[in-house]
Design brief:
The chain is an alpha/beta fold. The protein has four helices and eight strands. Helix content is 39%, strand content 24%. A hairpin with a 2-residue loop joins β1 and β2. α1 (58-74) runs antiparallel to α2 and α2 packs across α4. The radius of gyration is 20 Å and the shape is flat.
């Protein structure tokens, strides 16, 4: 990687430095494909012969966010002005975000390293239309989906793929979680989830 730009910003007594790197992305011709199915509780990977399920940390992050919202509901008028309550709410939100960022980075590194090792491409679901489907769901489901950081995970995988020159393919996710691509029968899962 080569340095392209350096951005320096001074705000509220703190100095922020952002470095932009220039990378030449030259993906290889893949021997096969590792397909990923992103869900709230787990990510399922399939490479043509082996199916693996990785437990996500999104539920842990969701519980932190839920706790922060409980505190806000408990003190609807005080939480913005009470320093102790505000600090607790911000801390929970920060921990929630950090859990998502940390797990996405670790999983992205592992899956792209495996794809590079075996000469595979990574197939991701094109989830651009997911937000549009929020209108047809109840508030509780929408709240959970907002914490499902699929975009963060996809960006982490794409960044690592560019770093390792791993090819990326986007596919239409319609019925990919419920229908077998070969025989078109209903998919039944009975594999163990692997923790990261």
């Amino acid at each position: 990687m080569k340095w392209k730009e350096v951005h320096v910003k001074y705000r509220s007594g703190k100095l922020y430095v952002s470095i932009v790197f220039k990378v030449r992305y030259t993906p290889y011709i893949p021997k096969g494909v590792v397909a990923l199915d992103l869900n709230l509780r787990c990510v399922v990977s399939y490479d043509g012969s082996d199916v693996r399920r990785y437990r996500t940390k999104f539920i842990d992050a969701l519980s932190k966010k839920a706790r922060a919202e409980e505190i806000r509901k408990k003190y609807p008028k005080r939480w913005r002005y009470n320093r102790k309550i505000l600090k607790r709410v911000r801390s929970l939100h920060r921990r929630s975000r950090n859990i998502v960022v940390d797990w996405c980075g670790k999983y992205a590194k592992e899956i792209t390293w495996k794809a590079k090792k075996y000469g595979y491409a990574i197939a991701l679901e094109d989830l651009k239309e997911l937000r549009k489907s929020f209108n047809n769901k109840n508030d509780r489901v929408v709240w959970k989906l907002t914490m499902f950081a699929y975009r963060r995970l996809q960006e982490s995988i794409m960044n690592k793929a560019i770093e390792y020159n791993v090819p990326i393919v986007f596919v239409n996710p319609k019925k990919t979680s419920s229908t077998c691509p070969r025989c078109k029968s209903k998919v039944r899962y009975n594999w163990k989830i692997r923790d990261m």
